[in-house]
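Reopening this ticket.

The earlier resolution said the output was attached, but the attachment link was broken on my side. Pasting everything inline this time so it's all in one place.
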Amino acid sequence: MTTRRRSIMVLLALVIALVAAACEEATPDPTAPAGPGSELGSLPTRTVKPIVSFTPRFTATPLPSMTFTPSPTPRATNTPVPPTETPTPAPSPTPTVVGEIRSTERVNLREGPGFNNAIVLSVPSGTRLGVIGMQQDNEGRLWYKVVYTDENGDEQRLWVLARLVITDYEQVIAQPLATEPPQSGGDTGAEVAQAATPAAQAGSLPTPDGNRVNILAYCRQKRVAPPRVTTNDNVYVEWSWYVALPDYMDEHLENANYEVRLDGRLLENWEQYAEEMKRESGVWIIYWYYPVGRLSAGEHEITYRVTWDQAISDGYERFGPGTLNEDNTGNCPFTVIPAG
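Inline output:
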């Protein structure tokens, strides 16, 4: 073997020896003590670093699912049988009393008891209708609630001034209606001939003399009972005239001729006993109060008649020669009793 080869072999053996020695150093003896100063205890032990686990910042917490709780099924209940309806007794019909219109002209039937209520229709004298109620307005006038049947058989419930109806309703039915509120207002049409004035009622005006008694000259036509009169009372005969406008009053006074009599005796100079014209209940009116003094006990009667020299108007109707109202008449019988 050549020197060169020998050198290579030696070098190779040396490398092998070094590798073997290194292996022995790297493999510690598990039985050898590792005390201080020992070569094994001085060698550093490799510590494997823990693996860092990344904790998610937000952990999605699943929402609890809502468990549906079934509602209890209600038990079937017996359906109540509706009570048998008690038949409501029909109200007893208001007794109807026959009445008949009496006037020298057509009479207005209104929506309510008062001159301020609208006129529904006008009917002639002699019209028959049913009377089912009565009521006074604020001026003390009495009105009847009536049932009017037209040509078609249709019924209407309306109101008419009581003094224009001939009926025995007040004797049959003594109670007035209480369901209708009182009405007031002025005359918007000629309800009657002027002998029946809208506001005058016997004994209704204030009297300065305690023994003064006013008696309406046409109380029978107004269906007003005369007041109680004694031999100590001072009697005044009352009448009036009303118009729509003051100018009509001048026309009336220029042409009117009043013939008012007490027991056949003419009451003269009636002009001087007129009061001043005033507005009342929607009309312009003048009252006359003619003094006749104390009367003897017994039966007495006032008769009333007015005529005109020429035709005039009160704003609602025409009166005088050539008209349907050539005169107005009325009367009032009354009794004077001895003072007690």
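Reporter confirms the inline version is readable. The chain is about 10% helix and 30% strand. The mean pLDDT is 74.
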